[in-house]
Amino acid sequence: MVARILVAVDGSDHAERAVDFAAELTTCFSVPLTILNVVSTTSPVPMVMGTYAELEQIWLNARGALEEAGEELVEAAKRRAEAAGAADVDTRVEVGSPARTITDVATEIGADVIVMGRRGLGDLKGLLLGSVSHKVAQVADATVITVK
Question: Disulfide engineering: 9 pairs with which of 15, 72, 98, 105, CB 3.0-4.6 Å?
Fold first, then answer.
């Protein structure tokens, strides 16, 4: 039995289709939907230079802008899900490693299903770097559905 669905969004076309799919699932199962955006903690400032206050401030300002953009993304996704029939929708923006944060939030909220968009990385690049959806599928306790 499904108790809650989590959908991760990043503004891509695949993520929009994941929201549509997740909204359809929530209406089928009459369960709540959480929409999540993760702002990556990867700093553009090299760690060696991280002690310089000016560079740190640049990173903090950039992260703040990314968090604001994340809020806009999840609100737009919420409107999209509600237009598709989802009745109980909440949103979250978290800062962290994307795959780890998605699985941690899923565990925290008791999500049985995680829905994510799948991006078209090339075979070699995907093999070398791994994708967020692949990492989530490997470590999540919930069922993970990737949407094209």
Answer: 15
Domain range list for the chain: 5-147
Q: Are 146 and 137 in contact (CB under 8 A)?
A: yes
Instruction: State how far the Cα of 64 lies from the Cα of 47, in Å rounded to an integer.
Output: 19
User: Could you identify the residue written with the tokens 């060696």?
Assistant: 48
- How many helices (H) and strands (E) the chain has is answered by 5, 5
Bridge partner residues of 106 (DSSP): none
For 5-147, the fitting CATH number among 3.40.190.10, 3.40.50.620, 3.90.79.10, 3.60.15.10 is: 3.40.50.620
Cα gap 19→77, rounded to integer Å: 7
* pLDDT tens digit at each of 148 positions of the chain: 889 999 999 988 989 999 999 999 999 999 999 999 999 876 554 445 455 555 556 656 677 888 889 999 999 999 999 999 999 999 999 999 999 999 999 999 999 999 999 873 344 444 444 588 889 999 999 999 999 8
Q: Which of 121, 95, 118 is nearest to 13 (CA)?
A: 118
Contact 117, 18 (CB under 8 A): yes
